[in-house]
Each structure stands twice: as C-alpha cells, then as structure tokens.
C-alpha cells in the first residue's frame, strides 16, 4: 500500500538534521517512508491532502511511568518536604502503589494521552505490570519499550526527616534474572513494535554487584539500560557518602556509563547549586561515554527544581532526550516546559530554542534508543508520523511551524497519528476508546488509591492531612 501525504509544512530530515519543507510530500509504503520531496510523480494507492497541516515525525518519550502516573493527579501537587529538598520520592512515592488491574488501567489512560499529544514511541518503566503493559501497548498500536525495574533494596522514611535503606538478602539478582527473561521473551514482539531492555530502578537502591551484572547482561543481550540517577539531593549525598563519587562518576566506575545507558533525569551533577559540589567532570564523562540523559522538566519544575542547565548539557555534547515521566503524558507540554526552564536557568531567551527541544523529542530520543529509523521523516525510516492542525485559534498565524508547535500547540491540534503506517489516532481520537468512560474508571481507581494512604503513610495521615484541598470546603448556612 502506497500512501502519498501532501502537507502545508513537512519537518523532513536532511544533512543530519531537521529541515522545513514547505508544500512537501511524503510517500509511505506499508510501514516505511519511501520518498520525501516537493512533488511525487509516481504511482500511489491513495492520497491524503493536508493543506493546512504540519507533518512531523512521531515524538518519543524516553522516560515514563504510565502505569501509575494519572493516579496521583490533584493529590501531590503543591506538596514538598524541605527535609528531602522538596523531592517527592521518599515520602510520597510509597503512597502510589496500586493493584495490577488499576495499574494497567492507568497505563491505558496514559498511552491514550501520549497518542493524543503526538507521541508514537514510549519507554515505560514499571514493575509488576510489565507483561500486561505489553498487551495494552500492542492493543493501542503505540510503539513501546517496556522496562521492568528491579533493585537490591528500598528507601523509606520513618519520620519524614531521615531517609533509610532496607536491603534484600538476595541483592536483587533474582529480579535481574527475571528481567533478562522478560527481555528475551518480549524484545521484538508484536511485529517489532514492542521492545524491552534492562532497568535497575535507582542508583541508590542497587548494589555495585547488581549494577555490574546489569552492565554485563546488557552487553550480552545488546540492549539498552535505563536507571534513575541524579534525581534527588538526598541520592547525590548518599552516593557521595557511600563511594566518594558523584552519581555519574559512580556509574562510570561500575561499568554502566556507555552508549547503551539512558540516565533518568541526571539533574544533580557536580556544579548544580543545590548540591554545592563545585568542579567535577560529570558532563565530560557523560559526553565522552556516549550515554544519554532522559530530561523530564515538568515533574521537577512543579517542585521548584530545574536542570542547570539543559543548554549547558547540549553545549557539552551530551545527547539529551525528553521524557514525560508522570502527568500529563504530553510531549507538547514537556517541550514547552523544557524550553522555558532552560531559558530561566540561563537567564537567556536565545537558548533552549524550539529547534533544540523538538530535536530532543525526536532525534534525541531515537539516538538514546539506538534507532536511526525513528524521529525523522526520511526514506527508510519508520512511518511514525503526526499531522498537526495549523488553522486552529492556538496555532494561527504561522510563520515558523516549529516555534508554533513548541510554544502554542495543544493536544487538540494533533489530528492524525500513524505508527508503522497504521492510523492509531484519527480526528484527534484513538479509535475504539471511550475517553469519558476511561476517565471515569481512572477516577475510581485514584479514589481507591487515596483511600489507602493512612495505612501506607509513615505518620498514618489521611489524604486531606497529606494534601489539604486548595480551598476550604463550602459551609452551608
């Protein structure tokens, strides 16, 4: 099947980067892009006319927790613990554990959100739900890398001030072996649209042996690895206390810091003002190793934290990809926040440009995954494509469509999404998904989760004690 798409603007790939092709045409043959240019004179089976549309490559989120992300919405915003330097990990993350059924419901909700914002490829970091997530992703048609996380122990706080660690006697090795079996089973499933790789959960919850074993298995399987590192001041201090190294230096020491590694977040490096650790060679190590950074600006920005700075990482030669992490699972929103906070961190409107963040959301993600057939509109690439309206109130007028996409577009402007040439979003909706019912089901799941907070919280607090409402309740006369 040959489909010719004619669009007002095409973000095409040429000479190693994105190029704006006005009045462009793209020929899709089955699941691949066959041709890109101004006028196709050959045969085709159908033509898709998109005169007031922007055609872009599918966006890539390299860091997502889709299986629980919507369930904490309207609960953990505006909350932070100064003793944990405003990180929500140690006091609040334990409150988000839910049933497998509700986690898979959350994953379905999140994947629909992603498709509606133009995301065609997701890296999902989860645990118990991994097998189910494979089937949810396959049913919706999104391209997914499913990563079952494992660790040697867990953190906890007994009093809201200290962060302590409880270690498993087996060191997490059996969980690594289960993850290896998962990768062997699922990598390349569903026509190649589902892939898998290894995910040691957090740098401070994994022993050196577990990390070294992970590096060896990743090399043997030739797969990627993602780990949370540099995501909290507490973690930075813990790794420095244990090993006398920064988290990035420690990853280098245990043999994980190479082109296979995606470092989740990596905000707290030597030189960040909040860790007061001057000097260091973290950016140099990251760039020289070929490792990648999954930058998720919004989940940290809403806690008053930002990377220092996104432009600085790019200038150092580090490949920075973008992730959506929790909620909203919306890459349009994430690009906007990345650009805004990047400018704020440097105090310079000329950096963290629309081109920079769009590149991170496409080519940066593709590089992180080792895929030269994603994140670009070029012959031979996968037909993962997105059509965005240009004639909406939010997008008009258009002079530079990339700037409009980053600074003005919303999910309502995303009209059509293709993965492997198959339509997975049409007229702004995922076929076969009742969004109203899905939202109601997620509401019920969240209420079940919130009802369990007293039993899980270190102080036995109620939901309203942990997260007081923004305004007092109405009082009847």
List the helices and strands and how they pair.
Elements: E1 2-14, E2 17-29, E3 32-37, E4 46-57, E5 59-64, H1 89-92, H2 100-116, E6 119-126, H3 130-140, E7 143-150, E8 153-156, E9 164-167, H4 173-186, E10 194-196, E11 199-200, H5 208-221, E12 225-229, H6 233-243, H7 247-253, E13 261-265, H8 282-289, E14 292-295, H9 297-301, H10 310-316, E15 319-322, H11 331-346, H12 354-368, E16 385-389, H13 401-407, E17 414-419, E18 422-425, H14 435-450, H15 453-456, H16 463-466
Parallel strand pairs: 1-4, 5-6, 6-7, 7-10, 7-11, 12-13, 13-14, 14-15
Antiparallel strand pairs: 1-2, 2-3, 4-16, 8-9, 16-17, 17-18
Helix pairs in contact: 2-3, 2-14, 4-5, 11-12, 12-13
Description of the structure:
Strands 3-2-1-4-16-17-18 form a 7-stranded mixed beta sheet. The protein has 477 residues and is α/β, with parallel strands linked by helices. It has 2 domains: 2-57 and 382-425, Urease, subunit C, domain 1; 59-368, Metal-dependent hydrolases (TIM Barrel, Alpha-Beta Barrel), CATH 3.20.20. Helix 2 (100-116) runs parallel beside helix 3 (130-140), helix 11 (331-346) packs across helix 12 (354-368) and helix 12 (354-368) packs across helix 13 (401-407). It has 16 helices and 18 strands. The relative contact order is 0.16. Strand 13, helix 8 and strand 14 form a beta-alpha-beta unit.
Form type = globular
CATH topology of the largest domain: the name is: TIM Barrel
Q: How big a fraction of the residues is strand?
A: 15-25%
CATH class of the largest domain: Alpha Beta
Give the strand order, joined by hyphens, for the main sheet.
Answer: 3-2-1-4-16-17-18
Number of helices: 16
The assigned structural class equals: alpha/beta
Uncertain regions spanning at least 5 consecutive residues = none
- Which architecture name of the largest domain does CATH use? Alpha-Beta Barrel
CATH superfamily of the largest domain, called what? Metal-dependent hydrolases
**Main sheet?**
7 strands, mixed
- Gap between N and C termini, in Å? 68 Å
């Amino acid at each position: 099947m040959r489909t010719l798409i004619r669009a007002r603007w095409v973000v095409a790939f040429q000479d190693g980067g994105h190029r704006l092709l006005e009045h462009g045409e793209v020929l899709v043959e089955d699941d691949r892009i066959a041709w890109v240019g101004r006028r196709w004179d050959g045969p085709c089976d159908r033509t898709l006319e998109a005169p007031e549309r922007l055609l872009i490559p599918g966006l890539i989120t390299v860091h997502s927790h889709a299986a629980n992300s919507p369930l904490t919405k309207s609960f953990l915003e505006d909350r932070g613990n100064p003793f944990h330097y405003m990180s929500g990990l140690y006091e609040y993350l334990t409150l988000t554990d839910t049933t497998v059924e509700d986690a898979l419901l959350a994953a379905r909700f999140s994947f629909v959100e992603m498709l509606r914002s133009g995301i065609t490829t997701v890296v999902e970091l989860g645990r118990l739900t991994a097998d189910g997530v494979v089937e949810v992703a396959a049913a919706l048609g999104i391209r997914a890398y499913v990563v079952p996380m494992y660790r040697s122990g867990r953190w906890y706080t007994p009093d809201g001030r200290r962060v302590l660690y409880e270690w498993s006697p087996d060191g997490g090795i059996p969980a690594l072996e289960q993850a290896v079996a998962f990768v062997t089973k699922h990598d390349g499933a569903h026509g190649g649209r589902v892939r898998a790789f290894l995910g040691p959960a957090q740098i401070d919850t994994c022993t050196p042996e577990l990390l070294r074993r992970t590096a060896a298995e990743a090399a043997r399987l030739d797969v990627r690895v993602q780990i949370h590192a540099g995501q909290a001041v507490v973690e930075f201090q813990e790794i420095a206390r244990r090993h006398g190294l920064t988290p990035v230096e420690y990853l280098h020491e245990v043999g994980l810091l190479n082109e296979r590694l995606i470092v989740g977040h990596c905000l707290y490096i030597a030189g960040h003002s909040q860790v007061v650790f001057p000097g260091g060679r973290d950016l140099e190590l990251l760039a020289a190793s070929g490792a990648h950074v999954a930058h998720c600006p919004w989940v940290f920005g809403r806690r008053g934290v930002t990377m220092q700075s996104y432009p600085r990482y790019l200038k150092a030669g580090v490949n920075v990809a973008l992730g959506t992490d929790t909620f909203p699972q919306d890459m349009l929103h994430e690009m906007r926040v990345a650009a805004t906070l990047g400018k704020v961190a440097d105090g310079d409107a000329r950096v963290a440009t629309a081109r920079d963040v769009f590149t991170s959301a496409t080519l940066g993600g593709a590089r992180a995954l080792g895929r030269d057939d994603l994140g670009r509109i070029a012959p031979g690439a996968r037909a993962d494509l997105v059509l965005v309206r240009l004639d909406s109130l939010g997008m008009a007028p258009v002079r530079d469509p990339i700037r409009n996409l980053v600074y003005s577009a919303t999910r309502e402007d995303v009209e059509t999404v293709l993965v492997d040439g198959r339509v997975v979003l049409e007229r702004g909706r995922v076929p076969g998904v009742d969004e109203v019912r899905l939202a109601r089901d997620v509401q019920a799941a969240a209420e079940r989760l919130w009802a369990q907070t007293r039993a899980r919280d270190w102080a036995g607090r109620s939901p309203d004690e942990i997260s007081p409402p923004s305004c007092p309740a109405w009082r009847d006369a």
